Amino acid sequence: MSDDTATYDLVITGCIALRDNAGTSPRFESNTTIAVTDGRIAYIGPDGDAPPAGTDVVEAAGLVAIPGLINCHTHAAMTLFRGIAEDVPVHSWFNEYVWPMEVNLTEEDVYLGTLLACAEMLSSGVTSFADHYFYMDAAARAVDESGIRANLGWAFFSSMGSQGLEQSADFAERLNGAAGGRITTSLAPHAPYTVNDADLTAAAGEAERIGVRVHIHAAENLAQTESSVSSRGITPIEILNRTGILDAGTIIAHGCGITEADIPILAEHRTSVGVAHCPKVYLKHALPPLTPIRALNAVGIPVGMGTDGVAGNNTLDILESMRLTAMTQKYVEEDATWLTTGHAINLATTQSAETIGLADDIGALEVGRRADIALIDMSGPHCQPVHDTAAALVYSARAGDVVTVVSDGAVVLKDRKLLTIDVAAIRSELSDRLDRLIDVTHGDQIQRYDP
Amino acid sequence: MSDDTATYDLVITGCIALRDNAGTSPRFESNTTIAVTDGRIAYIGPDGDAPPAGTDVVEAAGLVAIPGLINCHTHAAMTLFRGIAEDVPVHSWFNEYVWPMEVNLTEEDVYLGTLLACAEMLSSGVTSFADHYFYMDAAARAVDESGIRANLGWAFFSSMGSQGLEQSADFAERLNGAAGGRITTSLAPHAPYTVNDADLTAAAGEAERIGVRVHIHAAENLAQTESSVSSRGITPIEILNRTGILDAGTIIAHGCGITEADIPILAEHRTSVGVAHCPKVYLKHALPPLTPIRALNAVGIPVGMGTDGVAGNNTLDILESMRLTAMTQKYVEEDATWLTTGHAINLATTQSAETIGLADDIGALEVGRRADIALIDMSGPHCQPVHDTAAALVYSARAGDVVTVVSDGAVVLKDRKLLTIDVAAIRSELSDRLDRLIDVTHGDQIQRYDP
């Protein structure tokens, strides 16, 4: 320890710590101690003297320590619909499955679905997520109880009338800073094709007034961009620009349909705009191309890792998103030297923290940052031998290799056991709800997909 | 039980069993008992009376039972090189990393590397693999000890002289049927670009004489096919046809460069030829297109799931290969309705068994088949709730969810603990070997990659 008299709340010893992920050449250091006070990292450096008596200690010999992973775009409560809409085109996915089923949701459903999502994420090393859904007070309750960090936005369509925007703004204002600061908020208009320009402009204004970002789906695929250009003469990104959404700061979900001409527009807002990339669902929905990460990163626009909702993505696994991003970007760019393991780690840490507007607080194991830490066991046969820790992290390690997780300084997963959530109780609570949740005989849907 | 007096060697009770995977509409049945005698499935059906006293019983309430997974193409001992050649083009991967490093291999290295591979595979539900490597007596020893099933082929290049082919044929003849029948063999010429037509013809003759197949890399990517057409006027698949390799029966590794004109040639041999598909490494090597699975399956040519060697693929995880196959095939065909979850399961079971020539013995949970069974726990938050077991298996379950594995009637993994392999001992044995294994200062390589 640098200070023999210091008493830390928590000390992690003996780990192989990721010490530099700001660029694309990560550095891992063995025999590292991380000490935590008041929810922040207070020391990180070589193992030294034994920690002061009375300190909570996690012995992490040989475990790889990384910043808690960040899910930059999801709809957490959609765990309720996992696996319910497979092998269907995107129009059918929305209009025949998901949007009719979402009519059935109650506030308590959203609480349980979000809590299950928090269990999945914390178990797999994800300590922060950006959520875009409904009944967000229930989601906030799940976040508060589980110990995870989240940026929460209450989704709305213009079809809801003025009440949608008002509810989204009211929630963003009330909950920003809740759960001891673990909750931040966003305004959450659904998309430029479901929210009109007046409401987008108003949402941007509300976001600036409250001091939060806007979390929105935009240019989700190229067909949407083409439809926008054909009907209005401008791209979805240009709509975000004209309505002030980009000025407010934006989490852009997907962006597979971002055009070359959109890049300079986004580059002007690079310090407050990021793109959340969810590759698994893009492959499953079978709509090339993928998000132009090379072009975005070339001009400094951050790209974060996301999963989208589980009804499409089936998991909330950011290690999987990172791995798929590296592999698919190589493939579509036809360049095996592009999107290196180090670059993938940078996307999943630094750039993800930037994307959700927490660049100074999370995404690195540095003194002063919030203590969000995942400890990964690479002793399993599927990771051995470890010639290259970065490669093992990106291409071999699985979510199940995460053994211990610290969120905001508190141990929330210990030896693969969740300390804050009872998954068996959630399973039991859900079992009677599932038939009702997936019933579509009512013929209603929350919105029509026709971008 | 159907027969109250029967005594089975092993009884698995209470599982959710995959009962039909011959087509693309799999059926799972809850509350199923599977009973095993003499290494084969002797009963499968509804849970009934308690099993006879003295029987070994696995209580599998709520676990999903699937046929042991099949890795149709790998180089198992390349676990030794995991993560050592990332982010490099394929020429460099071969000529600067892998083929120089393989000069360093000893027989004991191959034994340890293969044993580690067996540990990884059994832990993840893979009970059979088709291997294509060197020092195959050492590989056979690892297979024998671990309890896994394997089809083993001793690789050769024409640059080895006549000794290469002779060694491959001698091994195939000596070891076919070894380890109580768990070992089958193949002739293993490396590829049409490293083995000349005379040697291919001779290999086909030896395979037919011994009664085994030929396992060979062919049309690995489109550039290889184009090079073959440009230099010789025929495709790699046409070379296999003209040299009698297809008549002998063939495991074709990769086939991303299979052309439309190749399809009818392969279709003529559909009962004895299969294509091993390893999507992770194709993405990483960044060489579109992918194997034309739609065209192959349309005319009844089986496609099996593989991983290739770990120096490229980083894992030996067939659940991952299956998942990536489903996702990437949807994407490249731009059709979300193609390669359904049921189809993916069919590829990973029935078609994989066909690909490695064991269509009657493995790949289904049916009376009379060898008892290769993986039990998967879907109670984790990343699988819950399970609206659709097939979707959960393809898109949510992870290799680490495999809890118990039966291979050839013997329990080899129990509650996630390997009973036949000591991974810690292998790790320790390997640690002193790694520097020597990756040393390329000798300037030699086993072969030059210039297809």
Q: Roughly how many Å apart are the termini of chain A?
A: 58 Å
In CATH, the topology of the largest domain in chain A is named TIM Barrel
- The CATH homologous superfamily of the largest domain in chain A is called Metal-dependent hydrolases
Number of strands of chain A: 17
On the 0 to 100 scale, the average pLDDT of chain A is 96
Question: Could you give the topology of this structure?
Answer:
The structure is a homodimer of 451-residue chains.
Chain A: E1 10-20, E2 27-37, E3 40-46, E4 56-59, E5 64-67, E6 69-74, H1 90-102, H2 107-123, E7 126-133, H3 136-146, E8 149-156, H4 162-175, E9 183-189, H5 197-210, E10 213-218, H6 222-232, H7 236-242, H8 245-248, E11 250-254, H9 262-268, E12 273-277, H10 279-285, H11 293-298, E13 303-305, H12 310-313, H13 318-333, H14 341-355, E14 373-376, H15 389-396, E15 402-407, E16 410-414, E17 417-418, H16 423-431, H17 434-437
Parallel strand pairs in A: 1-4, 1-5, 6-7, 7-8, 8-9, 9-10, 10-11, 11-12, 12-13
Antiparallel strand pairs in A: 1-2, 2-3, 5-14, 14-15, 15-16, 16-17
Helix pairs in contact in A: 2-3, 2-16, 4-5, 13-14, 14-15
Write structural notes for this entry.
The structure is a homodimer of 451-residue chains. The first copy, chain A, has 17 helices and 17 strands. Chain A has helices at residues 90-102, 107-123, 136-146, 162-175, 197-210, 222-232, 236-242, 245-248, 262-268, 279-285, 293-298, 310-313, 318-333, 341-355, 389-396, 423-431, 434-437, and strands spanning 10-20, 27-37, 40-46, 56-59, 64-67, 69-74, 126-133, 149-156, 183-189, 213-218, 250-254, 273-277, 303-305, 373-376, 402-407, 410-414, 417-418. The longest helix of chain A is centred in the first third of the chain and has 17 residues, at 107-123. Chain A folds into two domains: 10-67 and 364-418, Urease, subunit C, domain 1, CATH 2.30.40.10; 69-355, TIM Barrel. The relative contact order of chain A is 0.17. Chain A is α/β, with parallel strands linked by helices and 451 residues long. The mean pLDDT of chain A is 96. In chain A, strands 1, 2, 3, 4, 5, 14, 15, 16 and 17 form a nine-stranded mixed sheet that branches. The interface between A and B is large, with 69 and 69 residues.
